[in-house]
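The pair is quoted verbatim below.
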Amino acid sequence: MAGTPGTPRVLRAMNDRAALDLLLAHGPLTRTRLGELTGLSKPTASQLLGRLESAGLVRTTGNVTGRPGPSAQLYEVDPGAAHVAALTVDPEGITAAVADITGRVLGEHRVAAVATAEDVRDRTAHLVARAVDGALAAAGLRPGALHRTVIGTPGALDPHTGALRYAPHLPGWHSPALLDELAAALGTPVALENDVNLAALAERHAGTARDTSDFVLLWADEGVGAAVVIGGTLLRGATGGAGEVGYMPLPGAPLTRGGGPRDVGGFQRLVGAPAVIELARAHGLGAATAGDALRLAAATPGAGDAVLAELGRRLALGLAAIVAVVDPELVVLSGDVCQAGGERLRELVEDGLTGLALPRPRLRLSTVEGSPILTGALHTALAAARDTVFDTTAAPALRTGPRSSSAAKEPPCPTRAPDPAPAAARSSPSSPPPRYS
């Protein structure tokens, strides 16, 4: 926020932001109620609302009825003040969602694209733009309406080179110039973030880890990874690779060296989706997906019990190594493998951890609805957009309007999304979860 601390201009901007955060958290409020929540006098609250309405940040939305005396006008954050995009990337395609500044998701679109196909690897920016344009069309918005974009991908950006590491199965995403290409294609600042880190962010805002500042989220799906949050801050590591536990060597899996597209680490070989399908088939349970295999196992006494018990043992073995090093208060199990295994698998993992590691963290399933990665990306994009759009000390050209016309005037695009807010900020009313229409 520009300005000298303590000056009237900065104090007004602080009050403006507090009021906008309260409107996001509580929904429509009267001038009187907003004054009560902020501690501002009625005349000051009136001036504040008039200022925010003139800036296009709030609007009136009806009146309070059913009370004696004159009806009071209600105010809310203007949803059209800004829009953001969030995307998730997987080996089979790209999914995009567009939300307004209040967090309401307006449209989604998916572009199917096999990441290793020859005609895909050189068209990454084009495919991302197609996914975003499709989501904008579904939302009824024109191209160029976005203020911020966050993309969740496997792997992580190396802070020294700007290149994506630990994702050999996404060959089209490894160019150090990719962020510039994406920003040019979308006309908006773009941030890339590890997909499991985004899932952890979603869990902190709207899931099991909401009141926890030290936790590990273990993601088991087609790929396997972890997010480590210590003191409310993501642990990233020197090359951005903290949490790439799928590469962790474990007993029962062959050692992997090389890091090529077909090289899979020990933990992933044991608990990733292909391993779950193979494990189920070894016990006579055929299924096309890991989720189907685990649901079939849950409904099949004998053979199904053996599948779940062995998977629980494998997950506990990997978690024991993580827990022994990090000593988290909580471990959250997420991804299709953990979610499909459900509470029964969670209990087996918890039993398996007994005696393997001295720390005994709470072990819980993810409670985030929908895609945790997409939800985390939306949270991150909204936080960045609100910091810009809600800053009433900034010049209007930088604060309002789509970014397509002013992207060149923006500061350099970040190479990764900013870290989640500290634990103390999680309860702030400024970050209500995204809402789907």
User: Anything to note?
Assistant: Residues 183 and 190 are 6 Å apart (CA to CA). The radius of gyration is 24 Å. Confidence is low (pLDDT under 50) at residues 403-415, 420-430.
